[in-house]
Each structure stands twice: as C-alpha cells, then as structure tokens.
Amino acid sequence: MSRAEPFMTSEQIVKQARKLSFKFRVEHGDAFHMDEVHPESTDGFKSDDKDRAEDMLQEGHSVLSDLQGRLYAAKRWGVSGQFYGPDSAGKDGVITHSLAGVNPQGIDVNSFVVPTEEELEHDFMWRSLRVMPRRGRIGISNRGYYEEVFVVRVHPEILRKQKLPPSLVTDHIWDERFRDIRTVEKYLHRNGYVMLKFLLVISKEEQRKRLLARVDNPDRNWKFSGADLRERAFFKEYLKVYEDAVRNTASPWAPWYVVPANHKWFARLVVQSAFIAELSALNLEYPKLDPEKERELAAARLELSKKR
Ligand code: AMP
Ligand code: MG
User: Fold this and answer.
1) What is the rounded distance in angstroms from the CA atom of residue 60 to the CA atom of residue 100?
2) pTM for this model (two decimals)
3) Low-confidence ranges of the chain (pLDDT < 50)
4) Residue 228 CA: which ligand is closest?
5) Mutate which of 142, 143, 148, 207 to test ligand 1's pocket (most atoms within 8 Å of Cβ)?
C-alpha cells in the first residue's frame, strides 16, 4: 500500500477506502472459510505503521462526515451497521473511533444485550427492526438479530427459554432463521437500506490478554464480566457459528465485513473504510434546488446584504 500523503484528495481517500475494505467484504458466502481469516493480519501495513493508519483514520473522518451530510440531505437511503464478535473484540472502540468524524445528530446507536421479557414475547428480529434508522440516518447496532444464530445456537438452552411454540422448534430452526434473515434483508434493501454487517475476529490468545487487562487494570475492571470467561470456553463453537452465518447470509446488498481485529487501529481503519466505500457508492448529491427555492435564496441574499 502506498504511503498516505498528507494532502490526499477526497477522491484518493475514497479510492483507498474501497481498496482496503473490499479485501474483507464477503458478498457470496459459499467461498467463505473462517480458517482463512487471520486475526493478526494488518494487510499491507507493518506493525509499526500504527501512526500512519491513525493519520489515515483522521483523514477519513472528513470524507465520511461529508458523505453523511449528503446522506442526510438526500433523505433517501437509511444506513445500518451491525457489529459482532467475541467479548473484547473491540466493538465499542471500533464504533467510537471509526465514526468519530460524523455529526452525532445523524447517528443512532443501539446495544442489544440479553433479551427482556417483552422482547422474548416477540419474533426474534423485532427489537432490532424497530430501531432501523430513518432515511438519511446511520443506525449502529452493537450486536443485533444475528445473536439469534450466534449465542443462541452455541447455547441451545437459551432457545428453550424463548417463548416459541414447541412445534416450531425443530432441527431446521437455524436454516429457517437464515432464510428469514435473507428474506428480511432483501426486503430492507428494496426499501432503501444499505446494510453493513461487521464481524470482528480476534485470536483466543489476544482475547486472553485483553480479558486479563480488564482484570488487572482498575479502570477496565467495570468491563469484566464472569460471563466473558464462561463464553471463552466456547471460542471454537463461536467461530463455527460465525462461519455458518456468514456463509448463509452474505449478499451483495447486505455484505459481511469480516475484519481481522487483533490490532485495534487496523480494525478501526477497515470499518471506517467500509462505511466510506458503501456510502460513496450511493453517489449522493445534495438535493437540487427548485426555481422557487432559488428565488427565495436570491431575495434572502438581497435582504441580508443591506447593512442595517
Ligand atoms: P456485552 O455486549 O458484552 O455487554 O454483553 C451482552 C450480552 O448479551 C452478551 O453476552 C450476549 O451474548 C448477550 N445477548 C445479546 N443478544 C442476545 C440474544 N438474542 N439472546 C441471548 N443473549 C444475547
Ligand atoms: Mg462483554
């Protein structure tokens, strides 16, 4: 990868973002294999390129901010970004740092934890779909309906506690959920949604270090949960269900970005690049003014240019 020049044009930044993010974009699941994902990977960057990646992230902020402004003004598309990965994969940090340049008024962020009673009394996509962003906005989900084919699949006892009619809980349930997800994502796409699904992949060893830091560092203690350690015992099982979900639900209109995330700075850059790539592909223009609005602006200019 070429060195980031200090004054790259927006076009160059977009081009670079497309090139980087497309390497991790999965839109046809058949060819996807989890064991081909290397959590340690930083693509062409060297491990001492962290500063350069951070400069690129800074430059990306202004481009993404401009794209978000156009998205908002055009009010045609809604953008939904979902984030998944094992505990300590860095979802919070990625969300914060990749989108830091965007006007907070244009973004909605929702986190999904263990479902409430009310949520369990609805279909499995209900709580996620009711917070889909309005046209012109970016909606971020920290976890979402894919947990229903991740954690629930790793722990079938959770499924048993859900309030589904028993006759509907069969061996086909995961295939049915995949089919339902594909159908709903197609429907959303046809309604003007752009969907980005991120899976942050870390190695088990990197997770060990991060969880240990949560235990050792008083400022990070609050992030530690006993559940993290219990889930860690299922690390391999999670990789399997992640793989199966990506293989079954990747599509050109709702692609997965499977992001190597052992290096936080790299994951953040890939995620920001994906947003830049997907938004720029919409070719968003600021709305054209109609003649009446033009006349209104001309009159306002005249009025305001009088000094009084
Ligand atoms: P965290 O993201 O670390 O705050 O933890 C949220 C927890 O909620 C994780 O342990 C998830 O596995 C769990 N969770 C999220 N969605 C679901 C779901 N649909 N069913 C059961 N557990 C869930
Ligand atoms: Mg956690």
Assistant:
1) 10
2) 0.94
3) 1-2
4) 2
5) 143
